[in-house]
Amino acid sequence: MRQEDRMQKNKPQELVKEKACRPFGLRDKLGYLFGDFGNDFSFIFASTYLMVFYTKVLGISGAVVGTLFLAARGVDAFTDITMGRIADRFPAGKEGRFRPWIRRMCVPVAVSSSAMYLYFVKDWPYGGRLAYMVITYLVWGSFCYTAINIPYGSMASVISQEPKDRAALSTFRSLGASLASLVIGSVVPLIIYRTDEAGNQTVNAVAFTVIAVIFSILSIVCYLLCYFFCTERVLLSGKTGQKEGEAKEAEGSVLTRLFHNRALLAIVGAALVLLLATMLSQTMNSYLFLDYFRHAKALSWVNLVSISGMLLVAPVASKIAAAVGKKEAGAVAMLVSGLIYLLLFFLRVKSILTFMVFLFLGTLGMGFFNMITWAYITDVIDYQEIQTGKREDGTVYAVYSFARKVGQALAGGTGGFALSAIGYISEAVSQTEEVAERIYTMATLVPGICYFLIALILWFVYPLNRQAVEENTKLLSEKRKKEADGDVACRRET
Predict the structure, then answer these.
(1) In the prediction, which pLDDT does 489 show?
(2) Closest by alpha carbon to 89, among 231, 233, 236, 232?
(3) Are 166 and 160 in contact (CB under 8 A)?
(4) Nearest to 375 by CA among 15, 32, 44
(5) What is the residue extent of each domain of the chain?
(6) How confident is the model over 50-80, as pLDDT tens digits?
């Protein structure tokens, strides 16, 4: 069946209108940048240092922490999808459909984030420390962060319906994440790590709490900038003309529709593997420089170098993707990164400088993929509408967000189990040479294999090459014109 025929068969139940207001521009892109800047003050900080806080400060084994990270994703399976459906069915008011959630949830997510790093909990009984860890982590990750991240991610599809604008939003969002990584990666190691009289690298428990509070305040500022700078232009009306039974059937069949979306399944698989690789690498790097290179503060310079690689590709990422296609460019980029990390594994470098050079080269390919990864999702949302006739921005993004959380959890869980498996002792001031070598293997071999796997998924499974994206954009543009029927909605900005 041709796509045109499929769209006629699956006639949509939503009316899409374009809001006549301020044109899309730099203000929207900066606002969207600040949104992920705010997100990653908690997400990247947790991804990189929460395991360190739990093991080094609270004295909880890596296996227990890994179990928590994995179990929490079972909760996310319900909260993420539920939030996606809420966002999709939330009536669009004068602020839009997704924007209000940023204003509502910015303070709760900031407070819940800082609550995970209270240094004085280390003096509690072991049972109290465990309960504290479980409760605060679930409140932040499964509820508060979900309630702001899913509407924020879904908002890209309604800020503009132009593919080039959405690609720009993806680039600026990734820039926001890179800036957060730069701040966290270069500043945090200088503060939380210290050297004792024997020359051993230890952590400053109080510094964790202070930094977490500062990051929470900064995240609120960033979220508010996102809220005020961004404008929702594409208005998605509620599901009109549905009887109660039809509405229930639509809700019951949403997962079935999603599981038939090959593009979504492929990008979910790629995202899961990517987060497994990058988060595991970030987690292991903390131990790598602490126990292998025995120079924890050098981690700040390594993070600075690696982030600079991502920033270097930012100006050209969207242009390269437009020229050769996101699928094609992303596959080649991840292949190159996989080769670099495998070289690191086989060379077993002892020089921090040499490691930094290879890490910089490896982040060029991975950084390119990260810069355009959110543009994949807008293409997948369009593909979903082409296939089913239904617009499900929030739900599609929720599935993708859940996959990223699973990747993060697997990284944390795998990291925790791996640390225990290789003989890492949390209470020990320093680790044996054998354990240090195993940490090096985890930090290089696993990312290398994962990046190769992502390249294979993009090339052989993901169906949306440049030609397919252009065709879908054309079909949807024609559909928008017919459905709108000249009816243009305009809301006055405050």
Answers:
(1) 41
(2) 236
(3) yes
(4) 32
(5) 18-239+260-483
(6) 989 999 899 998 889 888 988 888 888 788 8
CA–CA distance, 451 with 167 (Å, rounded to integer) = 22
User: How far apart are alpha carbons 70 and 412 in whole angstroms?
Assistant: 8
What is the value of pTM for the model shown?
0.72
Give the residue carrying structure tokens 């993420």: 80
Counting every residue, how long is the chain? Answer: 494
Cα–Cα distance between 441 and 389 in angstroms, integer? Answer: 47
* Nearest CA-CA partner of 331 in 365, 296, 377: 365
Cα separation, 127 vs 288, in Å, equals 30
Phi-psi region of 228 (alpha: psi -120 to 50; beta: other; left: phi over 0): alpha
DSSP letter string over 261-275? -HHHHHHHHHHHHHH
Q: Which CATH class is domain 18-239+260-483?
A: mainly alpha
What is the C-alpha to C-alpha distance for residues 469 and 349, in angstroms, rounded to an integer? Answer: 43
3-state secondary structure of 395: helix
Tokens for 460, please give them. 């052989």
| CA–CA distance, 455 with 379 (Å, rounded to integer) | 18
